[in-house]
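Take a record.
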Amino acid sequence: MAFESFNEKTFKLREHGTDTRTEIMAGITTFMTMSYILAVNPTILADAGMDNGAVFTSTIIASIVAMLIMAFYANMPFGLSAGMGLNAFFTYTVVMQMGMSWQFALTAVFLEGLIFIILSFTGVREALFNAIPINLKKAVSVAIGLFIALIGLINASIVEVGDISLKLGNIASKEGFVFFIALIIMVVLTARKVKGALLWGILASTVISLILGVSKLPDGNAIVSLPPSISPVAFKLDFSNIFSFEMFSVLFSFLFVDIFDTLGTLTGVATKANMLDENGNLEDGSKALLADAIGTTIGSLLGTSTITTFVESSAGVAEGGRTGLTALSTAICFGIAAFFFPLFSIIPAQATAAALVVVGLFMLSTVVEINFTDITESFPAFMTILMMPATYSIAEGISFGMISYAGIKLLTGRGKEVSPLVYGLAIIFLLRYIVPVFI
């Protein structure tokens, strides 16, 4: 009974109309729906040259820290981990396209976290979010979804990158079979509303890949082990280029995506949990924002990309999760998962690639919320959605969206609809393209 008393005193369960069993089951449900990140994030950051096992452990530690803050400080039922889209930007834009080191990228994440800690205390973070046009926010989400899906197809070799174009890869192969089986399982289970559909799809296709010889069991067939050391990636920040334009561009992109992603997720999930007040605001929302800000800062030091609130938290909320005990239960599940790295290490790229495609689909859903009846709104959104996967860069997609939005509004006599912040950012992005022409 002491356990029940502790939960009630700490999380105020009765006040929130819930109980210990409901909260724990909700936390497990949230873990099941978001645990695919433990397979996907190390795979993505490994493409940047980082150690897969070390990233696995650092992701878990950073996620647990963020969720403990969410549980005991914010008392909210949200799960946090390395954000999809942000990890793709980290690897495929900053490192692979811009040619920067992963240490440089981690430094940008670290600075982002510090800035967000400050902004979370001052309320500026919400103000920045409100200044960005709603259609651009929706467009960025859609564009990142397409970008992630494209990465999944390329990682699975379903689509190959040629000298000047994309082309169909070798789909008539064992690897292609594993990818499509994983994709079918995930879609079917999602349609049947099975909790943890992506995780079950990854695990089932991994078994098939073992049978086909695409994957191999670890040495000694071990499934349980101590978590891999984080030493290959921990405390590897590089401050040598922090005053460069590249750092500004990368830092802003991280900030922009994380701002709308986290606040949008918090609002959406909180709405489902009836946690918003009569004005549509989330009480103590700054506390929830602080959780991912601190998680991001610590995660960068330990060696992982931006930590953010997961929309999959809605699965736990749907199961009745209403307090920090749900977040605590999810954190405990992450801690247990740390001892199953051998199991995660045999997951084939095709399985995680399928998960990327499905996550891309989920992010695409906001396209129906974009205003396509007003071309001054729809064209900037369209340019964002088009240019992000076309240029293989989240930053370029955001740049084209900002520039076209400010430019079209100004040229059509509707310049007053644009905030000074958007004008300032548009000018900075425009100079980024113009200045090199004259130097």
The first helix runs from residue 2 to 11. The two ends are 72 Å apart (CA to CA). The chain has a mean pLDDT of 86.
